[in-house]
Design goal:
With 231 residues, this protein is mostly helical. It folds into two domains: 122 residues, Arc Repressor Mutant, subunit A (Orthogonal Bundle); 85 residues, no CATH class. 58% of the residues lie in helices and 10% in strands. The protein is built from eleven helices and five strands. The chain has a three-stranded antiparallel sheet with strand order 1-3-2, with helices on both faces. A two-stranded antiparallel ribbon has the order 4-5. The longest helix is centred in the C-terminal third of the chain and has 22 residues. The C terminus is likely disordered.
């Protein structure tokens, strides 16, 4: 059966960064590694939420992928293991083994700012695996972490911001990052640059909790005065 060509109209498309074609594709010399990498791009593009990953069981359960790898269960598993090892060694994919009630599950992530941030959040216990293939990673607990706080109050969690938050949490105490975000929100200075400026000030001059509380109190009082003036 020959391919009939690409259809026009409302068919879904897959987002693949130009860097894949420019830097990665010329280095891939294994067809199964290429199949796996492209499949991960396709699967991640069909998911929702700020953090995305692919369960190993999804790889084994996808008929299109497994047929392209030979179809036989043992052969497919061996081909996937080899392909993932090559991709991980090349730096295109990341993996982490997660303990589950019925055993362990490998999660495959793209080696991108968002993927690295997801890996760090999983290792900290901030993210947990779900049974929903459309959103396999969700935040744990009721307390917001810095990623949730940023998305809810400042803006979309772009790959650049995800990487900046991840770096900030390794550079500064996590409580500082959350507190700086809260201060930026309360002062209506909703930008990462402002949050980072607060963190750098604390790093260089030390935290002055009393001054920050006063600044926040002054901001809140000014907001109330403005609201009362409008009445």
């Amino acid at each position: 059966m020959s391919f009939r060509g690409f259809a026009e109209g409302s068919r879904r498309t897959v987002h693949i960064p130009e860097q894949f074609f420019r830097d990665l594709l010329p280095e891939i010399d294994d067809l199964d590694e290429l199949r796996l990498t492209l499949w991960v791009f396709w699967r991640l593009g069909r998911q929702g939420g700020p953090f995305r990953g692919v369960r190993w069981s999804e790889l084994l359960g996808d008929e299109t992928l497994t047929q392209s790898l030979g179809g036989n269960r043992k052969a497919v598993e061996a081909a996937l293991e080899k392909a993932f090892t090559r991709a991980e060694g090349r730096g295109s994919l990341l993996g982490i083994d997660l303990p589950l009630e019925d055993g362990a599950e490998k999660l495959v992530l793209l080696n991108s700012p968002r993927g690295r941030a997801a890996l760090a959040a999983i290792q900290r216990g901030d993210l947990r695996l779900t049974n929903d293939p459309a959103q396999p990673l969700v935040f744990t607990g009721e307390q917001q972490n810095v990623y949730q706080l940023y998305e809810a109050s400042i803006g979309p969690l772009t790959p650049m911001i995800a990487e900046a938050l991840k770096d900030a949490e390794t550079t500064f105490p996590p409580a500082w990052v959350a507190e700086a975000l809260q201060i930026a929100i309360e002062r209506n200075k909703r930008s990462w640059r402002y949050v980072e400026a607060i963190l750098r000030r604390w790093e260089q001059g030390g935290r002055d909790d009393q001054k920050d509380r006063k600044d926040r109190r002054d901001t809140e009082e000014a907001r109330h005065r403005y609201a009362d003036h409008d009445k």
